[in-house]
């Protein structure tokens, strides 16, 4: 009798334990998201825009240094490529300078540059460098009057932000060095450089 009771109890346990185990639900802990930075905005494509700001120009003429500070306004156009968070491309710009120093002015400047940046979502931090040119005007009473184009380089950087998918705003600083140019025997070599602080907006197509 006792043997039968023990056998029946053992049989009941052998059926009940697997059934109870089958009813248990195991949940795999959700993986904790890792810290990652991704670009949620596509920076690639063509863009066209305008900018304005302030320029500080330095010229060296007839052995003396002269400064001319003024407003500046212009246009820019470029194309971006994107690989992950890295954004790279090319940009051209043209600016008119409102400076009127009297002896030597940089009436306009233009550049063709490469850009390289890091996209943090809808914000782009970038560096830029390339070739630059400027239209110089030298006008000294009793000495002579000359116009010429100075060629040099430019480098700088800035921050750009996508307000919408198509509207971009930016701020940037650039230094431009135009070296020396011979404006003729009456004037001789004229050296020029410029610093610019520009703010602009672009439309990305």
UniProtKB/TrEMBL annotation:
The keyword Membrane applies. Residues 1-21 form the signal peptide. Gene3D superfamilies: 2.40.160.20. It comes from the Bacteria. Residues 10-205 form the Outer membrane protein beta-barrel domain. Coiled coil: none annotated. Pfam families: OMP_b-brl (PF13505). It is found in: Cell outer membrane. Keywords: Cell outer membrane, Membrane, Signal. GO terms for cellular component: cell outer membrane. PANTHER family: BLL7405 PROTEIN. Belongs to the Omp25/RopB family. This is Outer membrane immunogenic protein.
């Amino acid at each position: 009798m006792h043997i039968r009771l023990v056998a029946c109890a053992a049989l009941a346990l052998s059926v009940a334990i697997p059934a109870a185990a089958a009813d248990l639900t195991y949940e795999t802990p959700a993986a904790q998201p890792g810290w990652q930075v991704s670009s949620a905005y596509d920076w690639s494509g063509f863009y066209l825009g305008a900018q304005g700001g302030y320029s500080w120009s330095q010229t060296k003429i007839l052995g003396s240094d002269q400064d001319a500070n003024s407003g500046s306004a212009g246009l820019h156009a470029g194309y971006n490529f994107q690989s992950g968070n890295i954004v790279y491309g090319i940009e051209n710009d043209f600016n008119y300078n409102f400076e009127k120093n009297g002896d030597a002015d940089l009436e306009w400047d233009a550049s063709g540059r490469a850009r390289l940046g890091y996209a943090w979502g809808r914000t782009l931090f970038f560096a830029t460098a390339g070739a630059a040119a400027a239209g110089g005007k030298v006008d000294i009473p009793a000495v002579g009057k000359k116009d010429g184009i100075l060629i040099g380089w430019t480098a700088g950087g800035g921050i750009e932000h996508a307000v919408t998918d198509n509207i971009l705003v930016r701020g940037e600083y650039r230094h431009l060095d135009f070296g020396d140019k011979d404006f003729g025997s009456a004037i001789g070599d004229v050296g020029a450089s410029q610093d610019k602080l520009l703010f602009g907006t672009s439309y990305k197509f």
